[in-house]
């Protein structure tokens, strides 16, 4: 397999090899591909969790309107309780 890189990426790979962290350019590319695969797997897990959360919300029953005044009142009460006297 032959891979073409932009000059910037090629320079980055060379820097990684010359730093001693990697033995060869192939090793740098393999590490990058492993990280890409891991990121994609995490995204799939997060997407599945999000879908489950959405479904749980849909299955939870009829929606009720949010009482913003009650939320604000509760926040003010908590803030007042925290303030030093």
UniProtKB/TrEMBL annotation:
Q: Where is the composition biased (Basic residues)?
A: 75-85
Instruction: Enumerate the transmembrane spans.
Output: none
From the UniProt entry, list the residue stretches annotated as the region Disordered.
Answer: 56-85
Which keywords appear in this protein's UniProt record, sorted alphabetically?
Answer: Toxin-antitoxin system
| GO terms, biological process | regulation of DNA-templated transcription
List the SUPFAM superfamilies. Answer: Ribbon-helix-helix
Task: Specify the domain of life of the species encoding this protein.
Answer: Bacteria
What Pfam families would the database entry show?
ParD_antitoxin
Q: Which InterPro entries match?
A: ParD (IPR022789), ParD_sf (IPR038296), Ribbon_hlx_hlx (IPR010985)
Family membership, please give it.
Belongs to the ParD antitoxin family.
The protein's name is CopG family transcriptional regulator
Originating species: Desertifilum tharense IPPAS B-1220
